[in-house]
Amino acid sequence: MGRTLAEKVWDDHVVRRAEGEPDLLFIDLHLLHEVTSPQAFDGLRKAGRGVRRTDLTIATEDHNTPTLDIDKPIADPVSRTQLETLRKNCADFGVRLHPLGDVEQGVVHVVGPQLGLTQPGMTVVCGDSHTSTHGAFGALAFGIGTSQVEHVLATQTLPMAPFRTMAVTVNGELPEGVTAKDLILAIIAKIGTGGGQGYVIEYRGEAIEKLSMEARMTICNMSIEAGARAGMIAPDETTFAYVQGREHAPKGENGEDWDAAVAYWRTLRTDDDAAFDHEVVIEGSELAPFVTWGTNPGQGAPLSASVPDPASFEDASARYAAEKALEYMGLNAGQPLREVTVDTVFVGSCTNGRIEDLRSAASVLEGRRVADDVRMLVVPGSVRVALQAVEEGLDKVFTAAGAEWRHAGCSMCLGMNPDQLQPGERAASTSNRNFEGRQGKGGRTHLVSPQVAAATAVLGHLASPADLSDVRETAGV
Ligand SMILES: CC(C)[C@H](C(=O)O)[C@@H](O)C(=O)O
Ligand code: SF4
Predict the structure, then answer these.
(1) Residue of 125, 130, 346 to test ligand 1 pocket, by largest number of atoms within 8 Å of CB
(2) What is the whole-number distance in angstroms between the Cα of residue 128 and the centre of ligand 1?
(3) What is the chain's alpha carbon radius of gyration, rounded to the nearest angstrom?
(4) All domains of the chain, ordered by start, with CATH?
(5) Strand partners, 310
(6) 0.90 surpassed by pTM
(7) Pocket of ligand 2 (CB under 6 A)
(8) Assembly ipTM
(9) How far, in Å, are 11, 99, 231, 347, 421 from residue 69 at the CA level?
């Protein structure tokens, strides 16, 4: 019988298989950041071990980095210690690090792909749940815990429990104004935040094949929010075009390494006779802009809908979760989502902080103004993304509209740096988690696409670009 994409990549990395034991996999790329690596390095020190493959290991600073005044000392002592510790560890163990201020610094899941380090068919790990992002290249990419980080540092291998396979097939075409973010929010609302548990999800179908690499990364990034072990998309011409020419892409003197790599990558497709353990089918043409109303990424609905009545949930735990969520979010059942007002808009993160995301937010903001009582932060996912945006003049579009243009990092995606919501503040955010307190204690988060974020910033309430049709005219543009 044929094999799925995930099974092929897995099989190609098994270095030891024994009855009744998890397979031991070789790891092609190990990404590190300041939050989940300190204890792993301490463990190495205690055991007198080194980093086995420094050539396959790379670190960046992202979670604790400020996005303003980056040349000043870091005020928060916890953040400062985290960054100093990473710097010392990387220096002591010979690991390549892109610190704050470096041109390759940025959110770890933005940096790997843009350097061409993330490639089809690889195994990629990082002590970070959104490592699933790299699956967009047809890599098997897992978030791992700190003790596993230590294991990979020491051995470049990892024992992995077997997984089940799920296909999420998206047929047809996404309607105009519907983005990868809307699609993944709709998928999670459909299968639930636990729906992917134990599975590696392969996204396939016409609508997926048409997506850019940036959009595919948005989808795979949020696989973890459905509980999945990983998300993957088979590599194709779009993938090869994105990887080709990047710093770490295969080359060879006459391009022979590239040709050999592409020949192998073309085999990384699920065989026609392979069977998935579970299949979900979605009609892309039926989708609409999607936003969350609750406190987990599965509590979402089309923007045109209203806040659901908890009583409408048949399942008792879903009903209870909805009640708690509405209480925390300060929302009432039946309230139209378009009438929910926000004070903050955040465009950024490893979900939607890439150049295409900034372009799409800028295209909505061009010639318009952020509403007076709204604060909008635009935070590029990496310094490279920032430089590209500046080259295209996007930073000017943002600042002219009244938004703040910040330095690269995780920023307001989670409250580990100065960019935070105040208690009771409400944000439309292009990030991936709307958990209680995620963006700051008592902060309320609505997950949205970059386009919805920008339209929301202009109108001051949840909105899509379609709601803006006459605003630009009034502004005389
Ligand atoms: C801090 C880190 C461990 C965490 C993760 O694992 O994802 C963070 O990146 C997040 O998005 O919540
Ligand atoms: S941007 Fe957000 S989701 Fe991504 S790694 Fe940083 S904190 Fe995690």
Answers:
(1) 130
(2) 5
(3) 22
(4) 5-265 (3.30.499.10), 292-474 (3.30.499.10)
(5) none
(6) yes
(7) 62-63, 107, 109, 128, 130, 349-350, 410, 413-414, 431-432
(8) 0.99
(9) 47, 15, 36, 19, 19
